[in-house]
Design goal:
single chain, about 575 residues, alpha+beta, 10-stranded mixed β-sheet, 5-stranded antiparallel β-sheet, 19 helices, about 20% strand
Length: about 575
């Protein structure tokens, strides 16, 4: 582990020290370009020298050409642009806007230099890895962007012990600040025959997902992503590089396991435990339409019965959606089962639909397929499955890079609304299922309502529950059998593009909110998932972190007393204006 000695020596590097380590006098307002306090050209030149020339002004690419729409449908392209984000904005909340300058960090020394510069000059600092934040956390005009995209190394360890720990070594993987989950999966599962619990979307960043808690397709079997964190390297607001784990600075380590990205520092490396790889991964698909409201209600009830009996276990994840028009869509995955075992789990519902054939369309749409788990993220294998993936089509793109076809629907999207709620497993009790079904049916009259079963950990193995309990995510996730998501995104609306019809967007947002209100009759008080929730979430401290918030707030005050790191509805953000420029408390 000589790397840690090298990292420590960075703190004494002349280039970083030349930028100053003491902040400017406390101010209630951060400067903007042209205003008093904004760094001079000489100041910016000094920063540019310190980061090896990797400082540049940021602008939005020209999006007026004939290929713009095609490029904006490519999450790899968006991630490669410092002036763009994976979402283009949120109705009445934020719009994608480029920072004034960006440091394209390639190493920890670059991160240290940028953090110290922002602290010294009291700048609005924004951190972007892959840019997937729905809240626009990696986006702010008039800011300094710390762009970690190039810090994307993935290293597999046969045996890893956290620094200063007496724990036995375990198989693990280390990921840089800009690494994406696709590359982590390809290194761990395709390359090493192990499994790491990460996100379902291939292009989501490792660092952002883990800091938000993190759920993936198979979390019901392995827990949250944050639960597997063994160690993190983080640059805090004082410009220090810290290696944190359960033995070293355990409070900060705990806060990084679900306390929200861009809040406690700049995470430059994460090391996660890997798990034994199941024999198979697979998927089930089913699309039904009921001919009447009564038939649809009965279908939902039969499905909840099936879920409680056959699917409420570590094998099953992903989602089932009930939608207006009495549409019922299954897009679930499974692990550790054969294809025949997966089909058998669904047979009671298929028998019900078959026995009531006059009430339903789509009886023949059911499919169940399984493949060896180590091939699940193998691009060559997945290309043989029609419609499963989309490869990065840009000239020179890595042939192994792809995204799941279903994840392409919202790339670059402008969010009209996004809401989530954990659904407690107590609702699966025989005496409460009717109320759950009634609420799901009522909500589906207004908007599609998706139950994400992998994002609630009730039904997971006890070791996964225990590890996830040691994170700071709202404990409601432990008792939930699913996270319900109700959302709507419109077409991309980046600067220079046609802008959304705001009246229509507000109408659609109202439908989403009405749908969630109807669903909340079944679970009025549960929390929401910080990475996927409402920008305007009421009582967000309780919703995101529950009883963990006071401890998180204390850790924030300890490591970032001046609020250098700000994100919307992040820990400690109560004392700042909505744009993060004015200290209000």
């Amino acid at each position: 582990m000589r790397r840690r000695t090298v990292v420590a020596s960075i703190l004494a590097a002349p280039a970083a020290a030349a930028l100053g380590t003491r902040p400017a006098a406390a101010s209630t307002m951060r400067p903007r370009p042209g205003a008093a306090g904004w760094p001079s050209n000489a100041d910016w030149a000094k920063l540019g020298e310190a980061v090896g020339g990797r400082l540049a002004p940021v602008s939005t690419p020209d999006l007026s050409g004939p290929d713009a729409r095609k490029l904006l449908a490519n999450p790899f392209y968006l991630a490669d642009q410092p002036g763009l984000t994976e979402s283009s904005g949120w109705l009445d909340a934020w719009r994608s806007s480029p920072s004034a300058y960006a440091v394209a960090a390639e190493n920890v020394a670059d991160v240290v230099a940028a953090v110290r510069f922002a602290r010294t000059h009291n700048l609005r600092l924004v951190i972007k890895g892959r840019g997937h934040s729905f809240f626009g956390a990696s986006n702010a005009p008039d800011s300094l962007l710390l762009w970690t995209r190039r810090m994307d190394a993935v290293t597999v360890h046969d045996a890893f012990t956290p620094a200063g720990s007496q724990a036995a070594p375990v198989p693990a993987v280390s990921c840089g600040a800009g690494a994406m989950w696709l590359h982590a999966y390809q290194a761990v599962s395709v390359g090493a025959g192990r499994y790491v619990q990460g996100g379902g979307c291939t292009t989501v960043g490792v660092a952002g997902l883990v800091q938000g808690g993190g759920f993936g397709s198979f979390s019901k079997g392995f827990g949250s992503a944050a639960a597997s964190l063994l160690e993190a390297e983080v640059v805090t607001a004082d410009g220090k590089v810290r290696v944190v784990n359960h033995a070293r600075e355990p409070d900060l380590f705990w806060a990084l396991k679900g306390g929200g990205g861009g809040t406690f520092g700049v995470v430059t490396r994460l090391t996660l435990a890997t798990h034994e790889l199941p024999q198979n991964f697979g998927a089930v698909r089913l699309n039904l339409r009921a001919h009447s409201d009564d038939a649809f209600h009965r279908l939902l009830a039969r499905f909840i019965d099936l879920y409680a009996a056959n699917l409420f276990n570590p094998h099953w994840g992903e989602q089932v959606t009930a939608a207006p028009g009495n549409h019922f869509q299954v897009a679930m995955v499974f692990q550790g089962l054969t294809q025949d075992e997966a089909r058998a789990a669904w047979q009671p519902l298929l028998d019900f639909v078959s026995a009531n054939g006059a009430d339903y369309d789509g009886q023949d749409s059911f499919t169940a397929a399984a493949i060896p788990a180590h091939l699940f993220w193998d691009a060559d294998v997945m290309r043989r499955a029609p419609g499963a993936i989309v490869s990065d089509p840009r000239p020179g793109a890595a042939p192994t890079d792809f995204w799941w076809t279903g994840d392409g629907d919202t790339v670059g999207g402008f969010w009209n609304a996004y809401t989530s709620a954990w659904m407690p497993a107590s609702l699966l009790a025989a005496g409460k299922r009717a109320g759950l079904v009634d609420a799901w049916f009522a909500a589906s009259r207004r908007w599609p309502v998706a139950f994400h079963f992998n994002k609630g950990l009730a039904g997971a193995p006890e070791p996964a529950i225990a590890a996830s309990r040691e994170t700071c995510t709202n404990p409601d996730m432990l008792d939930a059998f699913a996270l319900v998501i109700i959302a709507m995104a419109g077409a991309p609306a980046f600067p220079g593009m046609p802008q959304p019809n705001l009246a229509l967007a507000r109408f659609l947002a109202a439908q989403v909110q009405a749908s969630m209100k109807a669903l909340r009759v079944a679970a009025p008080d549960t929390g929401a998932y910080v990475n996927e929730c409402d920008y305007f979430q009421d009582d967000w401290q309780r919703a995101f972190w529950g009883p963990n918030y006071p401890r998180l707030a204390a850790i924030k005050r300890r490591y970032d007393p001046d609020g250098l790191f700000f994100v919307h509805h992040g820990v400690g953000s109560e004392g700042w204006s909505a744009d993060g420029f004015t200290h209000t408390a």
